[in-house]
C-alpha cells in the first residue's frame, strides 16, 4: 500500500468519525441554541449548497490550485466550522462557514473531500482492477468509522465537544494533506489548456454518467434509512431496538459488500458488477412492502444489503477509468455533485406518495433503480475503458 493510499484512508477514517458525531448532534445543538426550525433548515441547506458549490469549484480549478493544497484548505475550513460551532456564533456566520463545503449532513459524504480522494486514489499508478480494490477498502473504512462516530454522537449534545472534535480533525487532516506525495498531482497544464475542466472530448460521456447517477440517487432518496425506520414502525410496529439492531447488521453486511465488490469486479468487470449486482438488490427492495411479516421484511433488507453497495466502489473506479488523468477531478466533481443534488428530493416525494399507498416509495425506488441499471448497461456496454489497454496511471 503506497503512502498516498495510507494517507487518504487515514484522512477518510478521521473525517468519517467527525461526520458521524456531527450527523447525530448538530441538529440538537442548533435547537438548544434557540434556532427556530426554519433557521435550522437554512443552516442545513447551506451545508448542502456548500458541498455542491465546493465540488463544482474543484471541477473548474482543483487541479490548477493543486490537489494537496485544495485538500488542506478544505480541512482548514472544517476546523473553522468547529470554531464557529464551539463559540456559539450567530446564524449568519454559521451559514457562511457551512458554505465552504467542509461540513456534511450525512455520515458518509459525497462532497468535495470525496472528489479529491477519488482522483488521488485513482492516480497512484495501478490498473483499474487494483483501483477498485482501493475504493472497496476506502468505502469500508468510511462505513466503519462513520458508525463509530455516530455511536460517539449518542453522548449528550454539547457544542464545545462537537466544535472541539471538528477543530482537531480539521487540524490533523490539514497536516495529513501535506504528507501526500507529489504523485497525487497532475502534470502542470500547458498555458491556455482546458486541463482541470471537462473538455469537449469527455463532456458527453461525463454528462450521460452524471444524468444516470442523478436518477439513481433520486430513487435512493425514496428509501433513506430514516424513512425505512419510520415505515417499519408504521407498518409492523417495529421498536427502535429492533430497527437499530437491523440497521447495525445492515451496516456490517454493507461493509463486507464493499470488500467483496473488487473480487467480483476482477472476475466479470466493472460495468457488469455495477449493473448485475444492483438489479437483484432492486428487486429485493421492491419486495419489502409486499411481505406480510416483520421478520420477512427484515430478511429482505438484510439480503439486499449484501448486494446494494457493490456498485459504489466499482462506480467510482469506472468513472476514473473512463476519462483521461487530467480530467478526473472534473469528472468526479460533476458525477458526485449530480448525486448529491437530487437525493434530498427523494424523502419529500416518499412522504407525499405514502398517502396513496405505503408500498409506493419502495416500488417506485426499485423500478427507477432498475431502469437506471438497464439504461447504464445499454449506454456503456460497448464502451471499452482506456484503462483496459494501459495502466490507470498519470503519465509524467
Automatic annotation (TrEMBL):
Statement: the UniProt record of this protein carries the keyword Membrane: yes
Transmembrane segments annotated in the record for this chain: 40-59, 71-95, 135-153, 160-178, 209-230, 242-264, 284-307
Lineage of producing organism: Bacteria, Bacillati, Actinomycetota, Actinomycetes, Streptosporangiales
Keyword Membrane listed: yes
Protein name: MFS transporter
Superkingdom classification of source: Bacteria
Species the sequence originates in: Microtetraspora fusca
InterPro entries: MFS (IPR011701), MFS_trans_sf (IPR036259)
Keywords tagged on the record: Membrane, Transmembrane, Transmembrane helix
Gene3D superfamilies on file: MFS general substrate transporter like domains (1.20.1250.20)
Amino acid at each position: 500500500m503506497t503512502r498516498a493510499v495510507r494517507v487518504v484512508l487515514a484522512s477518510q477514517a478521521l473525517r468519517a468519525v467527525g461526520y458521524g458525531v456531527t450527523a447525530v448532534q448538530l441538529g440538537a445543538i442548533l435547537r438548544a441554541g434557540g434556532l427556530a426550525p426554519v433557521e435550522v433548515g437554512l443552516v442545513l441547506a447551506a451545508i448542502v449548497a456548500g458541498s455542491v458549490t465546493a465540488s463544482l469549484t474543484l471541477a473548474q480549478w482543483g487541479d490548477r490550485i493543486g490537489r494537496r493544497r485544495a485538500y488542506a484548505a478544505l480541512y482548514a475550513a472544517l476546523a473553522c466550522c468547529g470554531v464557529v460551532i464551539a463559540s456559539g456564533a450567530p446564524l449568519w456566520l454559521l451559514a457562511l462557514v457551512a458554505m465552504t463545503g467542509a461540513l456534511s449532513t450525512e455520515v458518509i459524504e459525497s462532497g468535495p473531500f470525496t472528489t479529491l480522494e477519488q482522483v488521488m486514489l485513482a492516480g497512484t499508478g495501478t490498473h483499474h482492477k487494483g483501483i477498485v480494490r482501493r475504493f472497496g477498502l476506502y468505502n469500508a473504512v468510511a462505513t466503519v468509522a462513520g458508525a463509530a462516530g455516530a455511536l460517539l454522537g449518542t453522548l449528550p449534545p454539547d457544542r464545545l465537544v462537537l466544535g472541539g472534535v471538528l477543530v482537531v480533525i480539521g487540524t490533523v487532516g490539514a497536516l495529513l494533506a501535506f504528507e501526500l506525495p507529489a504523485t497525487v498531482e497532475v502534470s502542470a497544464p500547458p498555458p491556455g489548456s482546458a486541463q482541470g475542466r471537462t473538455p469537449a472530448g469527455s463532456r458527453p460521456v461525463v454528462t450521460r454518467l452524471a444524468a444516470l447517477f442523478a436518477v439513481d440517487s433520486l430513487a435512493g432518496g425514496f428509501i433513506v434509512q430514516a424513512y425505512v425506520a419510520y415505515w417499519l414502525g408504521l407498518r409492523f410496529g417495529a421498536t427502535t431496538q429492533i430497527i437499530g439492531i437491523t440497521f447495525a447488521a445492515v451496516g456490517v453486511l454493507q461493509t463486507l459488500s464493499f470488500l467483496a465488490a473488487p473480487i467480483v469486479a476482477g472476475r466479470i468487470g466493472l460495468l457488469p458488477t455495477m449493473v448485475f449486482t444492483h438489479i437483484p438488490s432492486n428487486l429485493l427492495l421492491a419486495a419489502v412492502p409486499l411481505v406480510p411479516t416483520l421478520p420477512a421484511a427484515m430478511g429482505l433488507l438484510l439480503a439486499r444489503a449484501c448486494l446494494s453497495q457493490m456498485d459504489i466502489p466499482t462506480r467510482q473506479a469506472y468513472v476514473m477509468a473512463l476519462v483521461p488523468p487530467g480530467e478526473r477531478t472534473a469528472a468526479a466533481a460533476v458525477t458526485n455533485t449530480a448525486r448529491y443534488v437530487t437525493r434530498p428530493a427523494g424523502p419529500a416525494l416518499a412522504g407525499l406518495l405514502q398517502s396513496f399507498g405505503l408500498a409506493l416509495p419502495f416500488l417506485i425506488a426499485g423500478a427507477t433503480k432498475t431502469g437506471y441499471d438497464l439504461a447504464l448497461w445499454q449506454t456503456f456496454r460497448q464502451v471499452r475503458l482506456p484503462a483496459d489497454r494501459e495502466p490507470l496511471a498519470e503519465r509524467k
